[in-house]
Amino acid sequence: MSEEYRYKRVLLKLSGEALAGDVGYGIDPKVVDDLADQIADIVRDGVQLAVVVGGGNIFRGLAGSAEGMDRAQADYIGMLATVMNSLALQDAFERHGIFSRVQSAINMQEVSEPYIRRRAIRHMEKGRVVILAAGTGNPYFTTDTTAALRACELDVDVLMKATKVDGVYDSDPKKNPDAKRYDSISYMDVLSQGLNVMDSTATSLCMDNNVPMIVFDLTVNGNISRALKGENVGTTVE
Predict the structure, then answer these.
(1) Domain spans of the chain?
(2) Which helix (H) or strand (E) holds 63?
(3) Which residues cross the membrane (predicted)?
(4) Contact yes or no for 165/233 (Cβ under 8 A)
């Protein structure tokens, strides 16, 4: 384990949209390849990594229910979308020489292992990236909540939330040019100010279990490594 890394075991939360790149939907092979490249570097340096990926680039449960679809059914479709993203990530990791395992909260034995906490931890200890698919396996829970839950279960040192903005702002920086970025902020302030960092269930779960979070811009190459080394990348929430 390289001494320069501040965090030894990490959970990385990726939105489905992050995998779509500029296209806005589907999976952009170049984006996935760049991501695998960054992750390969930190895994080779000894960082233990789990990844939770969303499915919004393929299907978003909330959007489906807004169009009149049954919410639970829409959420299940969204969970299946995350499995597709997870398999794409696994393929990219392994092309970069990184061993990985997809663990799904919905049983799909032909393409993934079931999610078993102790097995996931063992994989991480052996230097394999664990890709956590299908959310929690329950409707009404977002992949943000999945990330918070798994971060607690897997006893990680930090939850990294990858976004397209460089941290947490007091208002939407796209709408307000005077929006102020926080270097650090408490979970309680995030909740009381209604800042949309993660949904309130996920935020409360991290707060109650003392899991720190770094919100950072994934589109800047090398940011994952810089954040893990303790550089001032993004916003720390704790």
Answers:
(1) 9-237
(2) helix 61-66
(3) none
(4) no
C-alpha closest to that of 52 among 158, 146, 142: 146
Sorted by sequence, the CB contacts under 8 Å of residue 136 that are 6+ apart come out as: 105, 145, 146, 149
Residue 93 annotated as binding?
no
What amino acid is encoded at 115 in this protein?
Y
- Tens of pLDDT along 70-109? 999 999 999 999 999 999 999 999 999 999 999 999 999 9
- 141 labeled binding residue: yes
Q: Report the C-alpha gap between 234 and 227 in whole angstroms.
A: 8
Lowest mean pLDDT among 49-58, 83-92, 176-185: 176-185
Give φ, ψ of 143 to 5 degrees. Answer: -75, -20
Q: Containing H/E element for 184?
A: strand 184-185
Question: Region 217-238: what's the mean pLDDT?
Answer: 93
Whether residue 32 has pLDDT greater than 70: yes
* Architecture field, domain 9-237: 3-Layer(aba) Sandwich (3.40)
60 labeled part of a ligand binding site: yes
Residue 14 annotated in ligand binding:
yes
If we measure between CA atoms, which residue out of 121, 117, 83 comes closest to residue 102? Answer: 83
